[in-house]
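Shift notes (night). Ran DMT family transporter while the centrifuge was going.
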Amino acid sequence: MGDAVIKSIAGAWPGTAVAALRYAIGAIGLGTLLFLKEGRKGFALPMPKVQLLRGFSVALATICFFSAIFLMPLADATAIGFTSPMITVIFSAIFLNERTRATKWLAIVIAFGGVLLIMRPNVAELGWVALLPLVAAMCMALVMMGNRVVAGAGSPLLMQFLVASVAMPFILSAAFIGHFSGVPALHIGVPDWTIIARCMLVAVTASCAHWLIFMATTRASAAEIAPMTYVQLLIAIGLGIILFGDWPDLTSLAGAGIIIASGLILWRGSR
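Came back to this:
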């Protein structure tokens, strides 16, 4: 739902500015909650280099994905974003030396077949800018790796605050560069109050969503929870049709179905 709200801002304000405002609101809100719950001692910076990786990756992922949903059908961008678990498997094998079974490699190959199906018409229409959601998925895979490394180094609230606050300088820099680049689409004017309200709504819903996922993982395994996230794709398709008139073609639906199937194969192999 938050992605649909972001897409509704397309053309009214640059994606970099939307990302900056969304994370500024999120960082302030999470910082306030952290202070009320844990006091000054709650503000720590464990593993600074990993926190820098998490923040930079989230910043780049957010800018790329927000730009993608401004330019592409919501369902297509969301479907390509679901390759993040498969990319995480690849990165884990390369950088963390984690053993990967043949089933996982099969799921990865199938998933990227689905991505190619979805991207084919978008690349033809938009050019290489259609790669934006794939870059966002790769960045989120780096975030997942970072999350594994810092797990247990602080409270979940601290980890949420750190990723938002560390991402802020990168996103603000991108917004600043875009504003002075001379590109009209990146010029940051004074936003309408409805844009501020929508960014606030997205900041709240995204923070609540992250917290709900964390609470779920304390009660069940990540492998059991992962398939539930595919509801997001169904909602993205529905909202895309209702709000923006983006009817997915059979090729896009087939690609999305293949990505979901690969995710279920990955989930089944991890049980």
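The chain is about 75% helix and 0% strand. The radius of gyration is 18 Å.
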